[in-house]
Amino acid sequence: MYQRREITTQERLQQEQYCQKIRTLIAHRPHYALVDTYGCQQNESDSEILRGWLTQCGYGLTDDEDKADLIAVNTCAVREHAEKRVLGNVGALNHKKAKNPDLIVCVGGCMTQQPVMREKIKNSYQVVDLAFGPHELWQFPELLLAAMERRHRRGGKRRLIAAEPSEGVVAEGLPRQRDSAVKAWLSIMNGCDNFCSYCIVPYVRGRERSRHPGDVIAEAKALVAAGYKDITLLGQNVNSYGKGLEEGVDFPDLLAELDRIPGDYVLRFMTSHPKDATEKLFKVMGESEHCAHHIHLPLQSGSDRILREMNRHYDRAKYLEKVAAARKYMPDLVLTTDIIVGFPGETEADFEDTLSLVEEVRYDAMFTFIFSPRAGTPAAAMPDPVTRAEKQVWFDRLLDLSNHISGEKHAAYVGRTVRVLVDGETGQSPYNLSSRTKGGRLVHLSGDTALVGQFIDVKITDSTTWALYGEPV
Ligand code: SAH
Ligand code: SF4
Ligand code: F3S
């Protein structure tokens, strides 16, 4: 039975004591850690916490595998392709360990939360010293210390394979080493209750649980005060934020409250489930000062029959209604989506329904995937007669359409002047800076690096399918 469990201050402070112990253990010379991240923004955000813990434990951070004394891989399980890449890369660490037997290898994230993967790591990936799941991130120092002590044991288990299903953890006040000084992730909730029939996320991330609004607002205020300009609220389905909290706050309420924080910054959020995206949300977005006029509204399929099989709880007509409502409140809305091609039992006619919906909506950008069966999900057990090659043909057709529409939408920006936030350097010339419009469109610029972190006006001079190019005016 799912129980929400809030980690106490006492428990957190205990973890800081484990950090102290590790610090002492590695104090004789500088130690370096590398964190390698796969998967979604939630994982990017978790990796910042992992880096926060590692820093508290006394490690310096590095991108160089040869310099690393500890390598932590934060994994994703959403499609088979992601898992294969992770396993290949973890297997390759055998060579590194042969050269440096003191190397510590940790594997965390969604993949390790599956019992079958835990067994696989235990039996076939001896290189791994510590495996842990997303629910155990808050106690990483304790697990790391235990794994370090085991390595020097004579008898007994030499490795620590944790990631027991301990659902429902909510932990505040964990350290975090942010990747950027301009853009910040702000996780507002964890887990998912939707159980879309193809998706592994609810099984590995557990039941939905929201952070208290007071904690979210305090973190947002601190981010704005620290000079962050681009804040992305994160959750598997932010639209059901607040469910089960005694505060009685829903996602639009939270957004409106955050919008009141004074300052020059943009608020974004990921991801919205169409079934829970309400007119109230669109209205709050339209009226807000800081909220980007961008919604990522995953469609998955344009066929009513397939949507039912996917357990998505909306149909074509409902989805189109939501898009129309969103555009009513935000005529300049940037709309993006995810689509799965080749769901079990999908026919040519179902696929045509997806194409026609895409043509009708005209997304600014689309993320398209070929269905990947995930063990333990209902869809993995459904009959799936269409071959991979046939699915690839559909996939390519959809991609062509998507590129065509994005290309046209981008071309329409050329000649216009738009306000962007310069968010980083690209390391390339002549377009050495990257920036984003408030709607989230990527704009490459050439300009002084001192512009990073500033809002500026740029004239769009060129465009491709994926990006816009411009000059500061
Ligand atoms: N919580 C987010 C999605 C997380 S997964 C949401 O509901 O919008 C990101 C995307 O991966 C999904 O939107 C879906 O398009 C895709 N995806 C998830 N499981 C998949 C699978 N088994 N095969 C192929 N694509 C999948
Ligand atoms: Fe997966 Fe559906 Fe939850 Fe998104 S809403 S994480 S697709 S189960
Ligand atoms: Fe992957 Fe886990 Fe995110 S499965 S997509 S990293 S929630």
How would you portray this structure in words?
The chain is of the alpha/beta class and 473 residues long. It folds into 3 domains: 157 residues, Rossmann fold, CATH 3.40.50.12160; 235 residues, tm_1862 like domain (pyruvate-formate lyase- activating enzyme, Alpha-Beta Horseshoe); 56 residues, Beta Barrel (OB fold (Dihydrolipoamide Acetyltransferase, E2P)). 36% of the residues lie in helices and 20% in strands. It has a 6-stranded parallel sheet with strand order 3-2-4-5-6-7, sandwiched between helices. A 5-stranded mixed barrel has the order 17-18-19-21-20. It has a 3-stranded parallel sheet with strand order 9-12-13, with helices on both faces. Helix 1 packs parallel to helix 5, helix 8 packs parallel to helix 9 and helix 12 packs parallel to helix 13. The model has no long low-confidence stretch (mean pLDDT 95). S-adenosyl-L-homocysteine binds next to strand 15. The site of iron/sulfur cluster (SF4) has 10 residues, from helix 6.
